[in-house]
Design brief:
By secondary structure, the protein is an alpha/beta fold. Helix content is 40%, strand content 22%. It is built from six helices and seven strands. The strands form two sheets. A four-stranded mixed β-sheet has the order 2-1-3-4, with helices on one face. Strand 1, helix 1 and strand 2 form a beta-alpha-beta unit. Helix 2 crosses helix 3.
Length: 159
């Protein structure tokens, strides 16, 4: 498995460092949607003679904070909506770093976006685009989450 990282992904050094530390192969390229997905290198023994990409099957979109996600809902909502509507992956994950759901409910973030509006937007997008939303209070565990989601999806496909 090769973890694919979108070339437009910003501030992903902690992800790359974790992947390198755990000797997990990764590659940077422009993904059609999302920030992370995976590919399989050729496996001649299984008659898989070319690299297979799974970015149309599964993607993970990462936001580094509630502040970043708030901006997507409040300032660039149309673009964010278009991004999700163009995503044809069967499985879509939204990973929100440095926060938990309680932070969102209690308005513990540094924007003027009201908690009620923020929650409404998050749950509306979740319903509309069938997202799996994951809060990751400690971003140092984000790469482990990304790898596990992608590995277990592959395992599901193989079974």
């Amino acid at each position: 498995m090769v973890i694919l990282i979108d070339s437009r992904e910003k501030s992903q050094a902690h992800i790359v460092q974790w992947l390198d530390q755990h000797r997990i192969e990764h590659e940077t390229l422009a993904l059609p949607s999302g920030d992370y997905s995976f590919a399989l290198n050729p496996i001649p023994e299984l008659d898989i003679n070319q690299k297979q990409y799974f970015y149309n099957d599964i993607i993970i979109e990462r936001k580094n904070s509630l502040e970043e996600l708030s901006g997507c809902f409040a300032q660039t909502r149309e673009r964010f909506n278009d991004e999700w509507s163009r995503c044809y992956a069967k499985r879509k994950y939204l990973l929100i770093e440095n926060a938990n759901y309680i932070d969102l409910v209690e308005g513990r973030y540094n924007t003027k976006y009201s908690s009620k509006s923020f929650l409404g937007s998050l749950h509306s997008f979740n319903a509309k685009y069938n997202l799996q939303v994951m809060f990751m209070p400690d971003k140092n565990y984000s790469a482990a989450y990304i790898v596990a989601v992608l590995q277990y999806y592959l395992r599901y496909l193989i079974k």
